[in-house]
Amino acid sequence: MQESERDIFWEPGELPKPTRDTRQLLDDMHKWGYCLLADAIESKPLADIRARLARQAEAEYHSGGYLENQHIDSAAGHNQWLMMLINKGEVFQQVLQHPDVTTVLNQVIGHEHILSETSAHLTRPGNPAMSLHTDQWWMPPPVMPGERALPAGDITRTGVRTGPLKKATHPIPAPMCVQTMLMVSDFTDSNGGTRLVPGSHMTGYQPDQSVPHIVPSVPAEGPAGTIAMWEGRTWHSAGPNTSNEMRFGMPTLYAAPQMRTLMNFTYGTKREVLDKASPELKQLLGFKVWQGYGSTGDTGNEWAAPAESLTGKLD
Q1: Helix/strand/coil (H, E, C) string of 267-285?
Q2: Per-residue burial over 104-129, b = 16 or more CB atoms within 10 Å of its CB, e = otherwise
Q3: Over the stretch 176-190, which tens digit does the pLDDT of each residue have?
Q4: What is the mean pLDDT of residues 258-277?
């Protein structure tokens, strides 16, 4: 096998394993595009998180708050997503600022990063596999001088540049986001644990979502309390749940401060949450102005201000 392909295709036993060694986490993220943080959440808070998710899911389902979304849920209704967990219990907040996760985020997307999504996936038996994709499918691919660039605002999930699972020989985009997945229950191959394509972050391409999984992938397996992390260029998907058990996962997406977030936290975070939020949490939620971006027109202020406190029309 040629050296240019060596980081894409792998041998058994050399892929990331759950660890608490932050240097190993960073090395795995750099080489493979993902890493596994062992024993990230202790048993008691983890049990509280699972219980809160189960109660919230049941209440949302029966209140009509649960609506199927064909993009993320199977037609048979085997998958339930709980969105904007920032509003649904303080027990979830400790996951957002885990120190070992923050160490990885600081190295991959920088010290000034923000929260893009915090949600939960409850995957029931029978849920099919999701299509392979990346979390920064919206990133315009680099071009050589004189080449026509793809207009950034015209990019769609199905209109991306796809290509082979082979290490690129041309410039590729930088990672602009990092996804983490707290395994609230054990993640196994059979219950649909996240599938990852090691080394795919080095291709410079997106996977073809119109075809089944024709490239090799591996399940992110681990006991409850493990956190899987992968960067925005890594090909991944949810696997099929062929077991007889429900799988609980809590994905949290972080992004560079330039990026528009998946969830609009500055608009959607409840006032009672903000009133008790630390400066660090408010920064994660996007309320800190970054290099002038995120400002609400209040010149010189470090934090975005609510509209009612801003100067309006003056005579």
Answers
A1: HHCCHHHHHHCCHHHHHHC
A2: bbeebbeeebbbbbbbbbbbbbbbeb
A3: 999 999 999 999 999
A4: 95
